[in-house]
Each structure stands twice: as C-alpha cells, then as structure tokens.
C-alpha cells in the first residue's frame, strides 16, 4: 500500500514537471499562429481565434534564412565534431595513459570548469580581433573547439571501461591510436551521443558570442538574426519572434529524438567505475 502511494506521488510530480516543460513549447507554437494584436490582447488566449501562417511567411521574406541556417549549421557541426574527437582523445589519455603532468592537466581541466564563461569573453574577443578573424565564421567556432566538460565526461566514461582491453591491444601489437580508435571509441557511443547532443544544443543556441563577433548579416547565426529582425521601431514583433523560435528549435528536437536512447544511456553509465 505504501509503495502504491509513493508511485502515485511520483506520477503526480512527473506530470507537473512535464506540464512545466511542455507549456512554453505549446505557447510558442500556438503563438506563432496568432496575429500581433491577438498576442497583445488582455487577457491572453491559448487557442488562436484566426490561425494564420503570416508570421512564417514574413519570417522567410525578411530573413536570409538559408544563409543564417547555413552559418548556424556549419558552426554547430564543426564545434560538435571537434569536441567529439578532441575531448574523447584527451579523456582517454587522462583515463588510461601514464605520462608526466597528467594530474596537473586534469586539475587544470577541473579548474577551467569553475571559471564562468564571461570571464574569458573579453580576452577571447581581443585574440580573435588580433588574429584578423573578426566577422568571419572561424571566429564563431574557434573558441569552442574543445570544452573542459567534454574532457571530464569522456574521462569518466573511459575510467569505467576495463583496463584489460588496453593490455590486450598492446599484446596484439596495436599502437595507442589503434587501441583508441578500434577498441575504446566504438564502445563509447552513449558518452559520445551525450556529449554530441549537449554540444550541438549549446552551439546552436549560442547568442552572445555571435552577437559580438558577427557584425554583418553574412555571418549572422539564426538566434542573432532572429533577435535583430524581430525588434524594430522600439517594438518587438512577437509573432515573428515566436515563428522564428519554432523553426530554430526544430533541429534540436530532431537531434534529441534520434539520439535520445544513447543520451539516456550515456547519462546513466558515465561516472560508474
């Protein structure tokens, strides 16, 4: 009886959390089908009185959507692939290889995790400007090619893998790179999926850094372009903003739905040693 009650409380809590998460998405989608006047009316209404796709048509008319989508996709893919490669390599080295300064490097990684991103914002911007990369696509992804969280995540996952695999590979005459790419990396799918989803999500939604570095429309990403085009004449076009947000969030949802099984498995197994 007590167990049944605890399950009911669990279902109630999960239902409340589900509603808290899904409500903004429903409001965004339904709001994108409303007119500006209907969005501003008091009291607000959930269901559009006169549903319209005008916000979406204006979105594609006023935005060079293909260009901005291309920029966001390139930046997100480069950052994600780079993190998957370099973070997994360094995480493997910190987990299974012995070399001088190993503890110092791992300590530096942990220390970097404690530093707020805004602290390094100005030095990164000055470096990008001095390199002559301001207002270019490389400036949008170079500072994010390797993330300390990714290194920590992959190290913890590789620590949970038996060291006997490493010894067996060496006995068979495989080099360190061969052991990593042929033995360890194929088994790291859940951790890689977790890192890939989190990295892609952060890069796709990144707003502040592209806003500062990109000064012309040819280097705008979708979040920056959407924020700038939806605000004009001291008034925010909420219909356009909600329509753009609905389009921008679609790739993220598709990526998560495709990799959700690996994502959940990676979260559950990472750190188990």
UniProtKB/TrEMBL annotation:
Compartment list: Cell membrane
Superkingdom of origin organism: Bacteria
Keyword tags: Cell membrane, Membrane, Sugar transport, Transmembrane, Transmembrane helix, Transport
GO biological process, one term: transmembrane transport
A Pfam family recorded for this sequence: BPD_transp_1
Membrane topology (UniProt): Multi-pass membrane protein
Any one GO CC term of the record: plasma membrane
Segments forming domain ABC transmembrane type-1: 69-259
Descriptive protein name: Multiple sugar transport system permease protein
Origin species: Tessaracoccus oleiagri
């Amino acid at each position: 009886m007590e167990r049944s009650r605890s399950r009911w409380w669990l279902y109630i809590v999960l239902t409340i959390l589900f509603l808290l998460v899904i409500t903004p998405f429903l409001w965004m989608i339904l709001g994108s089908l409303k007119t500006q006047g209907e969005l501003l009316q008091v009291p607000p209404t959930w269901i559009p009185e006169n549903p319209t796709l005008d916000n979406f048509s204006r979105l594609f008319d006023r935005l060079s959507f293909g260009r901005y989508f291309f920029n966001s996709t390139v930046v997100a893919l480069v950052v994600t692939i780079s993190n998957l490669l370099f973070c997994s390599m360094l995480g493997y080295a910190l987990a299974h290889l012995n070399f001088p300064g190993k503890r110092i490097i791992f300590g530096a990684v942990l220390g970097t995790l404690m530093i707020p991103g805004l602290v390094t914002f100005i030095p990164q911007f000055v470096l990008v400007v001095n390199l002559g990369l301001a207002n270019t696509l490389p400036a949008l992804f170079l500072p994010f090619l390797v993330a300390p969280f990714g290194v920590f995540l992959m190290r913890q996952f590789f620590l949970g893998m038996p060291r006997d695999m490493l010894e067996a590979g060496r006995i068979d005459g495989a080099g360190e790179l061969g052991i990593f790419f042929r033995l360890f990396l194929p088994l790291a799918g859940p951790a890689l999926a977790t890192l890939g989803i989190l990295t892609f999500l952060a890069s796709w939604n990144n707003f502040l850094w592209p806003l500062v570095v990109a000064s012309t429309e040819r280097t705008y990403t979708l979040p920056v372009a959407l924020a700038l085009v939806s605000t004009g004449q001291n008034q925010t076009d909420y219909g356009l903003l909600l329509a753009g947000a609905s389009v921008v969030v679609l790739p993220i949802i598709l990526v998560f739905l495709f990799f959700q099984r690996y994502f959940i498995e990676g979260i559950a197994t990472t750190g188990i040693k």
